[in-house]
Design goal:
Elements: H1 3-25, H2 31-108
Helix pairs in contact: 1-2
Pfam families: YtxH
Keywords: Membrane, Transmembrane, Transmembrane helix
Protein name: Gas vesicle protein
């Protein structure tokens, strides 16, 4: 989990706790109604937290997928570059071999 998401989670939980505490202190209702409000508040906070978790999970999946695609593309580019360089080296070596054969033929005459 990223640091930003962790801070957001801590702030959300802290805000919910402060809200519940203030709600209890200033509640004009009876205890049963106050408990019902707390229960509803808990359900709302839980639902909100689940939505944020699902959004974060989707975002991370998307980032990993795009990173994987970028990595695969970079790998293919690297393989292609190496293949081209290999062909250049082989051509250079064949040219040098031909020159050496020519020099060797002159020496053998």
């Amino acid at each position: 989990m990223s640091n930003n998401a962790g801070n957001m989670l801590i702030a959300l939980i802290g805000g919910a706790a402060i809200g519940v505490g203030l709600g209890i202190l200033f509640a004009p209702d009876k205890g049963t109604k106050t408990r019902e409000k707390i229960k509803d508040g808990y359900k709302d906070a839980k639902k909100d937290l689940k939505c944020k978790y699902d959004d974060l999970t989707d975002e991370m999946k998307h980032k990993f997928k795009s990173t994987k695609l970028d990595l695969e593309e970079s790998y293919q580019d690297l393989i292609s570059d190496v293949s081209h360089k290999t062909e250049d080296v082989i051509s250079f070596l064949e040219m040098k071999l031909a020159e050496l054969k020519e020099q060797n033929a002159k020496l053998q005459k």
